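Lab manual, section 2.4: Encoding a predicted structure.

Procedure: take the sequence of the chain (361 residues), apply the prediction step described in section 2.3, and record the output as structure tokens. A sample record is shown.
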Amino acid sequence: MKKIGILFGQENTFPQAFVDRINQKGEKDIQAEFVKIEKIIQGEQLDYAVIVDRISQDVPFYRASLKNAAISGTAVINNPFWWSADEKFFNNALAVKLGIPVPKTVLLPSRDHPAGTTDRSFRNLAYPLDWDGIFNYVGFPAYMKPFDGGGWRDVYKISSAEDLWAKFEGTKELVMLLQEEIIFDDYFRCYCIGGKHVRIMQYEPRNPHHLRYEHGKAPAAKKLLDTVKDYVLKLNQYLGYDFNTVEFAVRDGVPIAIDFCNPAPDADVNSVGQENFEWVVETAASYAIERAKKQKFGVDNLTWGEYLKSSVNKTPLLGKPAPVKAADVSEGKIAKKPGPGPDGEIEGSAKPKKAAAPKKK
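Recorded output:
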């Protein structure tokens, strides 16, 4: 008997429906249940052919347990090794290489020195950074958010350089992204399961959470939906995610990938609605059964994306340039420069300039 388990936290509706759906299908020698962990011993397998992971991003113990299970042959959805390494800034960089439109985005060093570091830990970092170049590239308004975060935690809307300095204070040791704001005409949230099954949902992120799927918009054009589907498949196949969502903001007819590192996406019936819930339960259950039938203990049953395969094969990732319009850049006098200076504090400056080359000792 092959067991399919689901590992989850506070969510209620999806885990039970997922288990029930698999068991209702009556597949020979396959059954589903909630994962139960009694002990984790190095190198010993868990008694699950497949585990669908919905919580390890928040519980490090679970993440380590899943890696241990995976090396014995459990097919973990999603790959816990890749998920541990992935983050939003890399996602954007990969999309650029694939020719998929994304907002203009830069990576910012943490406001404060990380614990255990000093100013000597940052001798390779120019001080001040080229803030003129950063602001001219991204433009205002913009959004500042953690490079590896989720759930809209620590997200700030930035209207100017002075606004950035003020809000940067509260980010402490977080590494942040500064990202172009996309003023959109339409918005999509898309499930992708198994790198091949796509559910495109029109969505309104400006509505209260429970009303975001009640957008009141006319159905989108087929050509636009075909482009969105192509981008969803390409992103998930290159990243190697089995269960993920991708979000797109449509500006001037161009779908721009906003967020595509959601490997434990919302699947609660009370927020996604009954039709979307039915699709994700049925598709996830069928895909988990498919993986269970192919799974063999003692070998690697994880999904590894085309990005890693192309790296191994030394195949360059070159996409067609994405047709994204340049943002209107709000130019203004830059009053300060944030970032970890020699004493870890924000220092004032009339206008930032590129740091001079360090003197030779």
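Check your result against the sample. The first strand starts at residue 2 and ends at 7.
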